[in-house]
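Supplementary material to the annual report.
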Amino acid sequence: ETGVTQTPRHLVMGMTNKKSLKCEQHLGHNAMYWYKQSAKKPLELMFVYNFKEQTENNSVPSRFSPECPNSSHLFLHLHTLQPEDSALYLCASSQDGAHYSNQPQHFGDGTRLSIL
Amino acid sequence: ILNVEQSPQSLHVQEGDSTNFTCSFPSSNFYALHWYRWETAKSPEALFVMTLNGDEKKKGRISATLNTKEGYSYLYIKGSQPEDSATYLCAFGGGSNYKLTFGKGTLLTVNP
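Predicted assembly:
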């Protein structure tokens, strides 16, 4: 399997639930990203990991907790989310994150999250 | 907050037409400009990454130009086909921390 794989594709959860989104890349990349896309808004960067170290937290609320156990896997742990957190969550990877803005990013298909 | 604007917001063309759209971005602290193609129910796919003023890149019928001094990039599609229907995103890399800032995209629909 190649590319960036995200699971689950769809997730419905209540505000008191705890769930996790998973991302896996088979491209040998060293940088991984979480993005959020809300309706009628542009893609918004949430977190960046480079060589398993978090290098960017774009003022994301603590109810979103990322984890990067190795360069191939990235998780987003969710707890006590709010209805406004309903969105498409995309994972991406690139070769490395040192100057990641000059490298193409490879995206997964995303997880469509709905908060009841 | 960095401002990345794409126009038009949406566009309908007939098969065979050529078309273009614009991405505007800050003209200072520029590092890179990305274009992505995002088909419905699929993942965004990188088209081009451009870093030099005056860059022109081409991939099949799609090409892009870059003007970093005035802060704009054009994406051109020659002889549009229905399979070109997608949202085209641009992203500006630069500013104080080089992170990518995306525009809202241009939704292209090519009618057969």
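The longest strand of chain B covers residues 30-38.
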